[in-house]
Amino acid sequence: MIPPFARWALGAALIASLAACSPFPSHEPQDTYTLPASSVDSRAPERDLSLRVETPQANRTLSGSRILVMPDPHQFQAYSGVRWSDAIPLLLRDHLIDGLRRGGGLHAVVSESSRVNTGLELVSELRGFHTEYREGRAEAVIILEALLVDTGRQEVLASRRFEIREASAGSDLPAVVNAFGKAADTLTNDLLSWAEPHWTQP
Q: Which of 40, 56, 68, 149 is close enough to 103 for a disulfide, judged by CB 3.0 to 4.6 Å?
């Protein structure tokens, strides 16, 4: 049972950590962040199979480039004066493509802008890409609903909801961004473990 004063102190600390956040920023961000490069390692021999990664669908809030935080379960805010280097769905798509190229053992991994014919397609909906605070500690949250599709037969081979939470080493933006990078790598590894049993299907 947390004493009332302790709860007040925790709340005050959280408000202080979010002091740089604004639900409706009135000026353009000045600092731009990108996800750290994928650190997924190769783990499978190359197969003569290609995968297209579609840009995840997302609602209006998650389609922008603001770095989002959820101070309570029903409210998004944005860190003031900063943004991602691209729209969130594109940022995540490119990170996944990089990681899947490194670790998937596939002949090619491309985006939907490529004209390459592929045997498989990853279709998804982004449901979360934000920071939450638990007991005063920031954590990066990525939630993705994914479908693996056989493009030749237009058949769904598998579907799964992924929810990744990665604690940040601190509440400053560089630490939060690093937590998002680690969360994106965990998501890539989980996607590989989920999808690899279907790599060899005709």
A: 40
122-137: per-residue pLDDT in tens?
A: 999 999 999 998 888 8
3-state secondary structure string across 72-136: ECCEEEEECCEEECCCHHHHHHHHHHHHHHHHCCEEEEEECCCCCCCCEEEEEEEEEEEEEEECC
Distances, alpha carbon 184 to alpha carbons 79, 108, 138, in Å: 20, 20, 16
pLDDT digit string, tens, across residues 18-54: 444 544 444 565 799 999 999 888 766 677 889 999 9
185 with 99: CB under 8 angstroms?
yes
Which residue(s) pair with 200 in the sheet? none
Which pTM was predicted? 0.83
